Amino acid sequence: MVLLALDTCDARGSIALLRDNQVLNVVEHDTDDDYSVWLLPAISRVLAASAILFSNLDACVAAAGPGSFTGVRVGLATVKAWAEVTGKPIVSVSRLEALAREGTGSAPWLAAFTNAQRHQVFAALYHRQSAALKRVGDEAVIAPEKFLAFAIEAARGERIEWISTDPRMLLETEPWQSRQSVGECVHAASPILAPAIGRLGYRMAQAKLFTDPLTLDANYVRRSDAEVFWKDRPQTK
Fold this sequence. Notes:
Blueprint: E1 2-7, E2 14-19, E3 22-28, H1 35-49, E4 59-63, H2 69-86, E5 90-93, H3 95-100, E6 109-115, E7 121-129, E8 132-142, H4 144-155, E9 160-164, H5 168-171, H6 177-180, E10 186-188, H7 194-206, H8 225-232
Parallel strand pairs: 1-4, 4-5, 6-9, 9-10
Antiparallel strand pairs: 1-2, 2-3, 6-7, 7-8
């Protein structure tokens, strides 16, 4: 199975080409160009580098978020258009779950987070159940300290493995010292997540967990600025 995986969820995006679970090539978004300008030429480069034609692809894997509004929209609009024109299947995955699956520890709990800007993180907590990861609660945009408190309460004294593309978001908080004292650390994962997204997409494609292009939707998590302003504005009598 040949898969093309897209990650346009933040400025450190990437594209990966995989054959089954093996990564053939990766192109990083290492420019200031918008994804609307960069994405299609970058896809051409990653395909050409492996001498694979677009017609040879068996599926496209897209990270549906959480992430930036514009980046996620561009990635999903691209794969939806392909699916509608070519009939190729789409696999939609969570960027946080792809990150979490990069964890290599054995702790019963796994906490994954990335920088969401505005002193917040995109975060999710997972409970390891044999080879499976079961998410506890929803993916969230949250202050690092609050995510730390939530994870500790949910784990009820059990060890937590922490993994992030942006460890400092948690390491620089004062409450983190309590986790250091019990021997926990934050594993620094590569921000180039398209390979991980592709590997998760391959697992889902094997199980035929494809997404209908008509129902494919983004998981922004963050409320829009307009919504924040409207809901949090001072009340007047």
